[in-house]
UniProtKB/TrEMBL annotation:
A Pfam family matched in the record: UTRA
Domain HTH gntR-type: from-to ranges: 13-81
PANTHER family membership: GNTR-FAMILY TRANSCRIPTIONAL REGULATOR, MANNOSYL-D-GLYCERATE TRANSPORT/METABOLISM SYSTEM REPRESSOR MNGR-RELATED
Protein name: GntR family transcriptional regulator
Organism from which the protein derives: Kaistia defluvii
Alphabetized UniProt keyword annotations: DNA-binding, Transcription, Transcription regulation
InterPro entries: Bact_HTH_transcr_reg (IPR050679), Chorismate_lyase_/UTRA_dom_sf (IPR028978), Tscrpt_reg_HTH_GntR (IPR000524), UTRA (IPR011663), WH-like_DNA-bd_sf (IPR036388), WH_DNA-bd_sf (IPR036390)
Amino acid sequence: MSWNAARLSDEGAPKWFQIAGILRQSIVEGEFQAGDAMPTEAHLNEVFEVSRTTARAALNKLVQEGLITRRSGVGSIVLGGRVDQPVNQIRGFTEDMQLRGLKPSFEVLSAGWSQSSGEAAQALGLASSDKPFRSDRLLRANDRLMGYSVSWIRPDVFGAMAPPTEALLAGGSLYAWLRENLGIEISGGVEFIEANLASQEIAQLLDVEPASAVLVVTRIAKSTAGLPVEFAVVTYRADRYRFRVEL
């Protein structure tokens, strides 16, 4: 049954809650798919004979559940499912996506030797004068924008080897490059995961509204010898990425 053929009950749950349930079911059943526009508030008002406030509350419920996004001038758009990342494993983005049957891709915003932040220098055990290799990349899975990554690699691991070019960083895994060219295997480390609100700059990079919910992962990746090799800060769109804890 099409969503607009459903009828509301005058008893039980509030009407906004019933409308949210009808629209949610229509997404689950594929009537609305990722990228499709949802009915407008005005259309919901007409179909269900409810107020604009009720229609807005129903759509806001779906936003909170991560099923749709609402953008000024665009409307309500259906989102795809979110990617799960186990919290007990450290993987590069390429490996993580490939294990899920997704195609990873990158857009390199910048790459080169750079003065590290104080946090990066402390995490990697560097002197303030050291310049690690920094790369800034947008992360995509099946061409859907997932996140923004800033990575610092300690300079002494490169030896006489030149760091990866922007073309190499755009085409594949940084961890694979470290393994194949420097013999460094990332096998552990620590990650800190926190919720945050997107700044104006991050919102523009991730194509979301300012103050949208994001997940920020701060990572220290270590080699099998226990050497801190990489310090990274990855900001994920919360509507497309989440972490899974297996107990």
